[in-house]
Amino acid sequence: MRSDSGIDGVLIVDKSPGMTSHDVVAITRRALNTKKVGHCGTLDPLATGLLLITIGRGTKIQDLLMSEDKEYVGTLELGTSTDSQDADGEPVETLPVPDLARTQIDDAFAKFHGDFYQLPPMVSAIKKDGVPLYKLARQGKTVEREPRFVHVYAHEILAVRLPEIDFRVVCSKGFYVRTYAHDIGHELGCGAHLKALRRTKSGRFSVDGAITIDELKAGPPEAVAARVLTLPAVSRLRGA
Predict the structure, then answer these.
(1) CATH class of domain segment(s) 9-67+204-237
(2) 4, 14, 23, 44: which is the annotated catalytic residue?
(3) N or C end of the chain: which has fewer CB within 10 A?
(4) Burial class (CB in 10 A: 0-12, 13-18, 19+), 200
């Protein structure tokens, strides 16, 4: 059997919860019997949805694909802040959730629209002196982080059922949705963490019709290969 499939392109995957983006890369390598596989834009284990997997020469446009805007739908839970800013972390503060008016919630979300700075969480893959922050966090260390300039193009409050709020956000690359949830909770005076997250779009790519992890595992290789977008198809889709 050949060690490489000879396939070049992009596979649109719908990531399941509880797995890392690297897990999806490993599954794709096995499914297509190819080594040259990468991913565009890490999704935390808690998150589901669109993950662009680059294959063969497709890995050369990885940075280009990662630079595009993203759309997410998520749920934040008010009242509890965690060390990772999401539901996988340990609670660090619990406060009562006031009977918030819809206008207060609208105003808090509106504050994080357009251009602003985010402070990356300690539990993140950003490196400080060559060491990922999450490794320092595991040692109980907190270090200074450089705020990141980010942009929210659009946001929508989908449902309010306190202490939970469902939302949609369209944002720039490098945006931390868990920090977004944390900061909105802080603005509302009771703290919050990200309870659930699903990436629905990246640039012109949508999770609709993406291959599922079960389909990826089940194969056969020919069926998986047929779902890979060729590089010319990717270029056309991006309008390039």
Answers:
(1) alpha beta
(2) 44
(3) N
(4) middle
